[in-house]
Amino acid sequence: MSKPNTPPDDSTTAGPTSGTTGKTGEITIDDLRKVYDPNGEHVVAVDDMNLEVDAEEFVAILGPSGCGKSTVMDCIAGYLEPTAGDVLVDGNRVSEPDPKRGVVFQENRLFPWKTVQENVEFGPQMRDGVEEGRAESILDEMGLDGFEDSYPPGLSGGMQQRAELARLLANDPDIMLMDEPFSALDALTKEIMQEKLLEVWERDNRTVLFITHDVEEAILLADRVIVMTARPGQVKDVIDVDIDRPRDREVVTTDRFTELRERALSVIREEAERALEQEAGG
Ligand SMILES: Nc1ncnc2c1ncn2[C@@H]1O[C@H](COP(=O)(O)OP(=O)(O)OP(=O)(O)O)[C@@H](O)[C@H]1O
């Protein structure tokens, strides 16, 4: 990648902060366009996408399948270079991955040949060394006390995702980029993970960008829900989730939650139908 990236890839360096707030983790997506061109196919995944995410905000992204959600996230992570436009974090153009922008996918990226604790310590070890007792305390918080020496393949799906979250937190990220992180989990485990994430976020206030297909999950967790259009993806609707925090599962039974869910569903339905028409049209 050719574009300059101002902050060095060093988590010990105090990075620039967001304006006058002193907070870090502000994301600016500015006229983002991403075109894939495998075998000359020219797939415009995202076009004219604009979005500001405040430092420490929790934003969920909903949208029809294939509308470019993961593409946007991969550009923020620094895995993909935009075709046009910019992605800025705290005012600096993103051009490569950085542990300050931690990513969680549906399938974990744990090393199967390393123990849970070794996985959690791997990131810090590669940079400035492991702080005594830190991995243990994060694992304890994730409910993995006693599983430090287990190998990931021997754990349940929910425990693997908790270990994945612990691995991410060990890097002390400003931004957590989460791409359908709980969608492969059973309903109960998913609820437990949502509560765990809310607990961690409400305490640490890191910026979270959370892709999901689950409208209830988006509204339960986020400050704002962004609904994207069918491909090429751009922002179709922004829903402010004006429900008090801390939130618990009871909020899903409230009238306000139902109103927000209906609004999100109707916008997504419209865009999902457009996406289907596009597919049918080739
Ligand atoms: N590496 C690639 N090469 C070619 N086309 C790609 C590539 N990656 C994604 N695409 C296409 O770009 C579009 C957007 O894909 P993307 O994965 O960002 O969408 P998404 O909204 O995350 O989808 P889903 O909800 O199904 O996960 C899709 O049409 C997809 O097929």
UniProtKB/TrEMBL annotation:
SMART domains according to UniProt: AAA
InterPro entries per record: AAA+_ATPase, ABC_transporter-like_ATP-bd, ABC_transporter-like_CS, ABC_transporter_ATP-bind, P-loop_NTPase
Record SUPFAM superfamilies: P-loop containing nucleoside triphosphate hydrolases
Low complexity bias: start-end ranges: 12-25
Domain ABC transporter: 27-255
Molecular function terms from GO: ATP binding; ATP hydrolysis activity
Region (Disordered): 1-25
Entry keyword set: ATP-binding, Nucleotide-binding, Transport
One Pfam assignment: ABC_tran
Xref: PANTHER family: ALIPHATIC SULFONATES IMPORT ATP-BINDING PROTEIN SSUB (PTHR42788:SF13), TAURINE IMPORT ATP-BINDING PROTEIN-RELATED (PTHR42788)
Protein name per Swiss-Prot or TrEMBL: NitT/TauT family transport system ATP-binding protein
